[in-house]
Amino acid sequence: MAPHTPSSPDIALDLALAVIASSDAPLLLLNSSLTIVAASRSFCRVFQFDPATVQGRALAELGAGEWNVPQLSALLRATASGFAEVQDYEMDLKRDGRDTRCLIINAHKLDYTGGTDARLILAVSDVTDARTAEKLKTDLLRDKDALLKDKAVLLQELQHRVANSLQIIASVLMQSARKVQSEETRTHLFDAHQRVMSVAALQQHLAASTVGDVTLRPYLTALCESIGASMIRDHSKLSLEADVDDSTTSADVSVSLGLIVTELVINALKHAFPNDSSGKIKVDYNSRGPNWTLSVSDTGVGMPRDAASSKPGLGTNIVQALAGQLQASIKISETHPGTMVSIAHTQIAAVHSTASAASGGHAI
Question: What's the N-to-C CA distance of the chain in angstroms?
């Protein structure tokens, strides 16, 4: 008798059984009547079935009937007939005494010729934990958005209170300056008033900015307009303008730059144009990578002859302290006419200075 030669359906069934037996995923092999031909060990383990009792049972009869889902059964029969294919079908597996599990089911008909009965491979994925994590993430994001909105409201309220407080302080300083008899005291009070108003202008612009980096052109332009409006009496004789590139910087750095501009402009207004003389003050800012230069120049009377021996005032000390925080250097030069004060941050120079100091040299 000639040896039996396996037919194509036999080979296909053997391959399907081998795939089911070796799979680490929950898989079922079904026939056209949705009876289980084989089940992977993973399927039995995940859904807590005895492997010996699964084979030969209808899918709808598994467990306590929790797999008896009419819509799924209809889709599987249509797939076996070649009229449909189950792709990412989602169902909730509800069992007494156990948590409901969210399952994703895919089913595919095995194609082979000569077979008298269709075979379906059904794959089951438990996405319950993933969905729970996704929902938790969504809830956290929703809570975060709510907290951010609350924070924004509180920040806006704080900004309004700060602005009001600065206006009150400025008003008190101005009233005090008008009442005192000492000219020196009056001058100090006027200086304090001007600084408070400048800080108020800074606070107002930053409050209107979005959270994050600050674009310097509108920021410094608005600051100069505010200073000019409050401190320049005759704009036909004295002008203040800003020439700023498209740089952006962090909020804390922008505050330091704004305070430096305020002090340098106030200093120029006080000393560069005596006897209501005419002229121009210009604020420049430009950057290249990490390096930047801020300068305030005027066309006034220039530096006094005894400037080197004179004692630095409050404004000078403020500028020096702020420049130190920014790790920047200060340079004062005569421009004929007038004076220019430059604040420069140069990383390359800082590296060279560090190397020079380490080797015993002297940084200029």
Answer: 107
Q: Which two tokens stand for residue 334?
A: 């005569």
CA 238 to chain centre: 43
The SS3 assignment for 286 reads: strand
**Selection from 256, 261, 267 nearest residue 244 by Cα:** 261
Question: Of 142-151, 257-266, 272-281, 344-353, which range is least confident?
Answer: 344-353
Write down all domains in the chain, each with its CATH number in brackets.
Answer: 8-126 (3.30.450.20), 133-358 (3.30.565.10)
Query: Is residue 156 packed enough to be buried (19+ CB in 10 Å), middle (13-18) or exposed (0-12)?
Result: exposed
CA 240/CA 226 separation, integer angstroms: 10
CA dihedral 51, 52, 57, 62 (to 10 degrees): -50
Judge contact between 43 and 27, C-beta under 8 A.
Answer: yes
The set of long-range contacts for 260-263, using a CB threshold of 8 Å and a minimum separation of 24, is 260/294, 260/319, 260/322, 260/323, 260/343, 261/220, 261/223, 261/224, 261/294, 261/296, 262/195, 262/198, 262/199, 262/202, 262/223, 262/227, 263/195, 263/315, 263/318, 263/319
> Is pLDDT above 50 for 220?
yes
pLDDT digits (tens, 9 = 90+) for 125-134: 999 998 889 8
pLDDT at position 144 is: 85
357 pLDDT more than 50: no
List the beta bridge partners of residue 107: 86, 122
pTM above 0.85, yes or no: no
pLDDT tens track for 16-40: 677 787 778 899 999 989 999 999 9
Residue 2 per-residue DSSP state: P
Q: Go through the chain and tell me how many residues it has.
A: 364
111: which DSSP letter? P
Cα three-residue angle 209-214-218, rounded to 5 degrees: 75
Residue 264: C-alpha distances to residues 171, 260, 269, 282, 335 (Å): 23, 6, 9, 11, 16
